[in-house]
Amino acid sequence: QVQLVESGGGLVQAGGSLRLSCAASGTIFSSDAMGWYLQAPGKQRELVATITSNSGGRANYADSVKGRFTISRDNAKKTVYLQMNSLKPEDTAVYYCNINRLWLGKTYNYWGQGTQVTVSS
């Protein structure tokens, strides 16, 4: 069973930076996509960024974070990171780590418990 634990959230002023980490336990395949999603109060969960396998992995970002956030992963440590720079108050949300796995024709999603990011103006 895959378990994900996020860390690195907190309170920061607008224009500041935070680095989120997500450590996975259990079997993680290099073919698993890893990513970050956010959920603001009263809104649906939405994509922030995803990254495919570490070797030549491709990153995909929401338009709202392009140029400010960078996703990376370390397969040896089974960890995915989200470096968040130039933070804005509208980035305030709970951030969730995700693993998306395609296995024998089925898709499996694993989620962490979330970490709160609050950006003050």
Q: Overview of this structure, please?
A:
- The chain has 121 residues and is mainly β.
- The protein has strands spanning 3-7, 10-13, 18-25, 33-39, 46-51, 59-61, 69-74, 79-84, 93-103, 106-111, 115-120.
- Strands 2, 4, 5, 6, 9, 10 and 11 form a seven-stranded mixed sheet that branches.
- Strand 5 and strand 6 (59-61) form a beta hairpin.
Short key terms for the protein model shown above:
121 residues, mainly beta, 7-stranded mixed β-sheet, 4-stranded antiparallel β-sheet, 11 strands, 56% strand
Number of DSSP E strands? 11
Question: What percentage of amino acids are in beta strands?
Answer: over 45%
Helix content: under 10%
Radius of gyration, taken over Cα atoms and rounded to an integer in Å: 14 Å
Overall morphology: globular
Between the first and last Cα atoms, what is the distance in angstroms?
Answer: 40 Å
Low-confidence stretches: none
Largest sheet: 7 strands, mixed
Mean pLDDT across every amino acid position = 95
Output the structural class.
Answer: mainly beta
SSE order, one letter for each helix or strand: EEEEEEEEEEE
Number of helices in the DSSP assignment = 0
At a glance:
0% of the residues lie in helices and 56% in strands. It is built from no helices and eleven strands. The strands form two sheets. Strands 2, 4, 5, 6, 9, 10 and 11 form a seven-stranded mixed β-sheet that branches. Strands 1-3-8-7 form a four-stranded antiparallel β-sheet, with no helix packed on it.
